Every structure is written in structure tokens, then in C-alpha cells.
Amino acid sequence: MVVERASKAAAAGAGGPGELGTPETVALAVAPAERCARVPSPGSCGLLVLAVCSLALSLLAHFRTAELQARVLRLEAERGEQQMETAILGRVNQLLDEKWKLHSRRRREAPKTSPGCHCPPGKEPCEW
Fold first, then answer.
1. 40-84 per-position pLDDT tens digit
2. What is the DSSP letter of 78?
3. How far is 36 from 59, CA to CA, in rounded Å?
4. Could you give the CA distance from residue 91 to residue 98 in angstroms, rounded to a whole number?
5. Can you tell me the distance from the alpha carbon of 29 to that of 57, in angstroms, rounded to the nearest whole number?
6. Contact criterion met (CB below 8 Å) for 125 and 119
7. Is 9 exposed, middle or buried (0-12, 13-18, 19+ CB in 10 A)?
8. Which of 6, 62, 72, 75 is 20 to 30 A from 53 via CA?
């Protein structure tokens, strides 16, 4: 096919090298068109299919991993809130127990002063 076109171009007019219409120029101009008309080889089609499949699998793995990370973060947040509530309640209970013990001791202890003395506790009794 290239040979036929080249011979027709040569018969139409012979010019210098590089001019349009010369056999070399026609052969170069026709070659890219013929390359585009060719069907890709089975090996290159296989590589293309392999590349598309690997891209699809990597995207699937990425989205699946992102979903799992979001679930883990949500579960950790829920568990963290529960642990914090437990820790806070435990500390509040401890403080209430300490306060209760302090007040209960004050009520049980009777003043160790004589009935006629109004001195603060811990000082020596008044001498009247």
C-alpha cells in the first residue's frame, strides 16, 4: 500500500528531497496513519487489563481501610468517654467518702473541755 502511494506520488511529479510529493515524504506521512489503524497486541492488552485491575484493587483496599479506621476511631471515642465517666465517678465517690468520714468524726468526738471553760480545743484549760 505504501509502495503504491509512493509510485503514484513519483509519477505525479518528481521534486527534490524534502519536498511534498517525493516518495520519502509520502512514506513518512502515511506511516503514522497506518500505525493508528493497527490493533494492539495481546500482550499490551493484557498489561493494560492488569494495570486497571491493580488500580481497582488498590482503590478498594484504600476505601476499605479508611472505613475501618473510622470505625476504630468511633469505638475508641465511645470507650474513652465511658472510661472517663468511670474515672470521674470514682474520684467523686472517693472525695465524698473522705468528706463523710471527716464530718462523721467531728460529730462523734465530744469536746474534751470542762463545762465551765470556753477555751478553744488544744489549749490548756482556763484557770478560774
1. 888 999 999 999 999 999 999 999 999 999 999 999 888 877 777
2. H
3. 32
4. 11
5. 42
6. yes
7. buried
8. 72
Residue 19: which of 32, 10, 7, 8 has the closest Cα? 10
pLDDT at position 1: 52
Contacts of 24 (CB under 8 A, 6+ apart): 17, 18
pLDDT level of residue 126 (50, 70, 90 thresholds):
low
Confidence (pTM): 0.36
Asked if 15 contacts 22 with a C-beta cutoff of 8 angstroms, the reply is: yes
Handedness of CA 38, 42, 47, 50 (dihedral sign): positive
* Residue 75, amino acid: L
Cβ–Cβ < 8 Å for 113, 125 = yes
Q: Cα(66)–Cα(56) distance, rounded to whole angstroms?
A: 15
CA distance 40 to 15: 36
Q: Where residue 113 falls among pLDDT bands split at 50, 70, 90?
A: low
Residue 64 is predicted with a pLDDT of 97
Place of cell 515524504: 25
| Distance separating the N- and C-terminal Cα atoms of the chain | 141
